[in-house]
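A reminder before we start the practical. When you read a complex entry, don't treat the lines as separate problems. The point of joint prediction is that each chain is placed relative to the others, so the output describes one connected object in space. Small molecules and nucleic acid strands, if listed, are placed in the same frame. In the example below there are two entries. Take a minute to note the order of the lines before looking further.
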Amino acid sequence: MATTEEAAPFVQAFRLAQGIQGESALVTARRDAAMQNFAALGFPGRKQEAWRFTDLRPLTATPILPDSAPGIDLDETFIAPARLSVSSFRIVLVKGCVAPKLSCMTGLPDGVWMGSTAEAAQTRPDLLETAFDASDNAGAQPLASLNAAFFADGFIVAIGAGIVLETPIEIIHVTRSDSAVSWHTRNAIILGAGSQATVVESAIGSGPGWTNIVTSVDIGEGGKLRHAKVQNESIEAIHTALIRATVARSGRYEIFNLTLGARLSRQDMHIALAGESASFALNGAYLLRGTQEATIAPFVDHQAFGCKTNEVVKGVMDDRAHGVFLGMMAVRPGADQTNAHQLNRNLLLSREARVDTKPELEIFADDVKCSHGATVGSLDEAALFYLRSRGLDEETARHMLVEAFAAEVIDTADLGDAISSYLRRQLQAWLDGPKNGI
Amino acid sequence: MSNLLEIQDLHAKLTGGREILKGITLNVAPGEVHAIMGPNGAGKSTLSSILAGKPGYEVTGGTVTYQGRDLLGLDADERAREGVFFAFQYPVEIPGVNNMYFLRASLNAVRRQRGESELDAAQFLKSVKEKLKFLEIKDDLLQRAVNVGFSGGEKKRNEIFQMAVLEPKLAILDEIDSGLDIDALRVVSNGVNRLRDPNRGMLIITHYQRLLDYIEPDFVHVLSDGKIVASGDKSLATELEKTGYANLSSAA
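Here is the predicted structure of the whole assembly.
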């Protein structure tokens, strides 16, 4: 296959790439196939419907090649802003590699495996296997292919059947760079039948680097995973992430997604509700200012009888920011009694702010309840006046209304006091004003 | 004693619209309660909106002076911090904003202006306890979103509760009786009466005389077609009840 022009520098870099020490021949073969796939595809283009609204030029203008020296232990203080205030099991990835000194996995109960992808490559190849998908090598997800070719590390959490993990798991991606380099992490979260866990994932950092994350999620029968993700990267950074999940019968996957940082970001979710009565919930918000550009793209595939989905995603755009919501809910033939609802609400705080919203349904079953909707509006002037008439200055009143608008999804997500207050703090910090030049 | 509020020959219109207020002159001294009555379309809500600082109106003539300062030169929030309180005829529902969080932020904004220390959540709760009680407001109302899902009576009691908390020097009460049943009217009126104070002036705007049975004003003014056509003591209100607005308007 021919190599596209923009892929050529990556193909060249791949020849020199080392992979993970001790990885199996199978993994190496997957990398080769994925590289070939990316070489042929190149970066996604605006001619592809799923990428039509996302301006990828910051990513494609010059090749952002993988960091040749990833993974340095940083000081605790670098991750402090992203830490939960309660005790947790924790994996910190510095520049795409697990930093053991900042991580904490002591006291894990029997039946729970948690560690780095690099470690799994050596000791648990079966777990690493779950982090791959056929589309890495042959599909139309160029960024996932690039990730498969170059990943240096990642995190893997595997929870055996019937285990209810009360302590939350924290995953912190932290990056620092002066130049535009990329970090590719490949991750997996596996829940056995009937097990439950909460994962809180944050991405922070400084500099113009590109973080490209691919996470596979597998939820067994009756399992329940709550997964909060806060993208709070530096304003020069690029962040792309893909979650691919399969939910078995009566399993439940809840995602909370908060997008605050990065110059350009995109969060894709491909959720397969594969078993009867499986369910998915997405609550999320993107708050953008300056010239930030962010896309949230959840794709939910209802494959079985009686599955449920509920999505509420809110957007706040100020200045010249641009938000994109691409929500697709597909109902396969035979997936009767599907109950799927999708709502995207947006608040534009300036005349030049922009949002593209596309909530879609594709239904091939008869007996379903599905709805989708989108709204775009500005701040309620009557509410603003009411608050001001009680002595609150305009800025405070506006903050209060924007916070209320966005925080509703935190309340709905109902993640418990510790995580909710953590999310509120992140939101508050955004509202408190431009930082890192946003 | 000098006047708290002096309205001098005030002319105003809706931005881009026709003239609604056609020369209003009115003074409120500390301790006084003035009632402004009038038929629909007389300009009552225009007057209250202009005093509150609501956008969308244009003052075409005259002055409004509050404690010797030009009130019209202040933004709505500055007026509030300076001690002007405006009770809304239709309190606005604000989903997602906790009533207590909002009111504490509001009180602290006013306290900062007065040079007083800010209150934390516990101090705030303590300071409002008695006020909640005399307005017959249940504690859980504080934990709900501002005015969301409140009954008509709850919304109005919440307005007066806010006034009790903010302790203004001048209160403008815009149709606080609208939509209230007799029990709610009694509670709201009792609340207002408890807040009468030798240092506080009040301007009560109402369509109905009924409210003035509960809150006895020192002065009553009748507004008709943008002008005050009659002023007197509370007996004027009783008289109006008998004769109606029609007679007064034609007399003017």
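Discuss with your neighbour: The CA atoms of residues 220 and 232 of chain B lie 5 Å apart. What might explain this?
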